[in-house]
Amino acid sequence: MNEWSRELEAALHSGDAEHMQAALTRVPDNLLHAARPYLQHMAEQCEQQGQDEAALGYREQLLRLEPDHPEHLSACARLLQGLGRLSEALQAARRLRSVEPAAGQALEQAIEQALLQAQAAAAAAEADTQTFKGVSPDVFDAPELPVDAEDFRVEGLRQLLRRYSGQHAPRHSLQRLQDPQWLAAWQPVLDGLSGARPCFRGSELGVFALRALQAGAQQVRCVEDHPLQARIVQGMAQKHFLAHWLPGELDAVQLDAQPADAEQAAAARQAAFEQFSERFSIECAEHIAAGDGDCLVFPGIDHSLLGTGIVQAVREFAQGLPADQALRVLPASAQVFVMAIEWRYPQAPFALEALAPLRWSLYPQPLDADPALWSALSAPVSAGRIDFADFHECNWELALPVLRAGRVDALLYWFELDLGTQTLSSAPDSPLRSLRPAVQHVGPVEVAVEHPLQVQIAVREQRLRLRLPFGNEAVREPPLPSWFGPMLGDAQRNRAYADAIARELAVAPKARVLDIGAGCGLLSMLAARAGAEQVLGCERSPALAKIAGDIVAANGLAEQIRIVGKDCRQLKLPEDLPQRADLALFELFDCGLLGEGILHFLAYAREHLLAAHARYLPRAARLFAQVVEYRFERVLGIDASLLNPYLASPGYSNVDAACLPYRPLCAPIEVFAFDFAQADLSPATRELSPVVIESGVASAVLFWFDLQLDGEGQLSNAPGSTLHWKQALQFVAELEVDAGQTLSIEANHDGSALSFRWRPEAMNAARFSRVPRMDPRWLAASAELDQQTQSLLQHCAQHPEERAKVRELALRMAILPAAHGLDPVIAQRFAHMLIASP
Questions:
Q1: DSSP helix/strand/coil, 486
Q2: What is the distance between the alpha carbons of residues 91 and 595, in angstroms, rounded to a whole number?
Q3: Do the Cβ atoms of 406 and 377 come closer than 8 Å?
């Protein structure tokens, strides 16, 4: 029996829809055709029972067999609409229209109407943000929940965000497990646990705990914060046990073994497993209960130092120790350093100081910016030492020596962790990838060399709170997204656009310019400086549009430039633009080129806003892709291949290829080309046949774009590029490949995003991995959470009073996530949805 058939049989017996759908993806197409009546029956049954997610899975398998079948397309569109995935539903309706025009058009119009209603709800939420007075600085000093907050609302929001935190938790460990400097520092520490009984509060998905066990630890206890982490650790432990036991079994038990020998082998196996279980235990708990152990290991410290709850974990662990036993903690302590900085914008020849008040966050952010994008205004100062085994809340007072006059935008702090035999530093010049300095907004504040900058630091159990003592902080407007600063400071991008704009306007110096997605107005100002007669910049974020207007005025260009707070598709002639524009400027690209919706904006602008002779900058783009091997094998000597399904995610991800331990298996190949003067929204498919240049396991597709700005200028975010745009990565089913082999991949784009999949009918099914590409239970739970969150946000959009109450709770939870057992990333992301980040 083939592996896929055994998996399908198990799925049938389980009755689990997600298991069934995952198994069906592995069935060869020629055999799946025979199961078409069963798939049809299951799809209809799930639809009748209201199981939309399961029904959609079966319909998608039917579409795999018959890609243009009108019934399946119609059903998929309606199911997607019911799940709130309106953009995908609209694409399915458009596919249906190409097969059955009348039915497809009617369904498309219905979904478009639903989309308009959703946009109206979003507009209502946006109107609420117009009356939103910003975030008071007082909440940062006292982020505890209001005493009159209703328990049902607090607990409901906390449980939603905690479940999200559990789904997201493995990502942090996976990031650290790919950091060679992190692993190099911890390896001797784990090996030094020989003879000890460590308790791991987070075991890095079992890798650290198994390494300690392998090094000779007497007993290892893993206390995981979330069920998903505990389940992964359980699987890692079982695989580790089997890998060590099976060779002995195979040596001892021969093919002609007698029943007595088989019983003896089974008894030996049971005894070995019991011995392993006695030495290795796994718990899932929000708090550490009393238990065995002589050392607490807490590897999950983030850039904020205290924001992931190490102090609470130490206190809980210490309560279970005998009175005469010394408390040992790894890491044992941290030395904290502080420095004042200002933001810089290379090759942006305009005054952009008005942006500084918007570069703040609810929780300290890791400093991921290139050193060219910030400058030190003070010398670094050692602030103090925190002993985790003997923690006391306190206040530190510092005087930072000012190196040069300037404007302080933020305080940078970092720390050195004492691991006993090793030290880990998160300093700005540290080679660590997974632990960076923390940035806390405090400004802007003008400083002079003759006056040291006074800084106060409140050391509390769940955070470090840095502030200036003279009340400089004002009410904060909705913040800029974290990617905005690096984008604006991208010197290569700024220089290339400035040069290309100058060349275009040298040919037509009196051109009327439309800047689509103006942001802070940089491209508009470059066009005005190059001689444009009139520039209209449209920016759909009202808060950012207002700042852009201030920046334009501060640079003396208000007569040439007008910034409007509208989506490009809301502009009309002559109300917003007296005449059609001669030149379109834009850089609304994500790492995969299409994800910001540029083709949608250009389609509208071409029809309604641009002259027939209009030029486009950039003129064109080409997408390239490369099949790569990117997976776990062994980490610290531990088989980590079980972690590969948790590396993957639906859709594509933004990655920095320079930081990924990947291996190219094929040469880059061109996928799609776009002429922006003509490109429309029509979906497109292309079959690719790359040739394998090195044997391995093909597990992902890395892709990027080249921009042709004008006749001369080009930009590319290919691997090795220093642009702020990084690369896109999409995981595919793992496939063993050999050098010289020709692969068969299908690339698709729907006008909004790019996707890749193997063409299984052209591949050897036996070479595909038996392990699902993603954990189906994780996917199902994530989809359920997304639907719940969407429902909550829609409810808040329709009820402003409820939105205000939820927003207040979300803000405080994001400032102090450890107090609520939340992942800081998740807590911030949700809060920003409610304060309308641009």
A1: helix
A2: 15
A3: yes
Q: For helices 776-798 and 17-24, give the axis angle rounded to 10 degrees.
A: 120
Rounded to whole angstroms, how far apart are CA atoms 174 and 646? 8
* DSSP H helical ranges for 414-480: none
Our measurement of the distance from residue 88's CA atom to the centroid of its chain's CA atoms, rounded to an integer in Å, reads: 21
* φ and ψ at residue 793, rounded to 5 degrees: -65, -40
CA distance 581 to 564: 15
Radius of gyration of the chain from its Cα atoms, rounded to whole angstroms = 29
Query: Looking at 266-270, 299-303, 426-430, 651-655, which range is the least confident one?
Result: 266-270
| Contacting residues for 351 by C-beta, under 8 A, at least 6 apart | 551, 554, 555
Percentage of the residues of the chain whose pLDDT score is greater than 70 = 90
Q: Which of 632, 631, 639, 629 is nearest to 235 (CA)?
A: 639
pLDDT score at 837: 37
Phi-psi category of residue 737: left, alpha or beta, with phi > 0 → left and psi -120 to 50 → alpha: beta
Q: From edge to edge, which strands make up the β-sheet containing 463-467?
A: 394-400, 453-460, 463-467
> 167: helix, coil or strand?
helix
Residue 614: which H helix or E strand, with range?
strand 610-617
Cα distance from N-terminal residue to C-terminal residue, the chain: 55
Q: For the residues 374-388, what does the mean pLDDT come to?
A: 96
Angle at the Cα of 528 from the Cα atoms of 522 and 532, rounded to 5 degrees: 135
- Sort 417 into a burial class: Cβ within 10 Å, 0-12 / 13-18 / 19+: buried
State the residue for tokens 């001369």.
712
Q: How far apart are CA 813 and CA 182, in angstroms?
A: 29
Q: Which stretches does DSSP call E strand in 695-739?
A: 696-708, 714-716, 727-737
Q: What pLDDT, in 10s, does the model give residues 267-309?
A: 766 676 777 778 899 999 999 987 778 999 999 999 999 999 9
Tokens of 329: 């903690």
Geometric angle at alpha carbon 482, from 479 and 784, rounded to 5°: 90
* Alpha-carbon separation of residue 185 from 182, 189, 200, 235, 260 (angstroms): 5, 7, 17, 26, 49
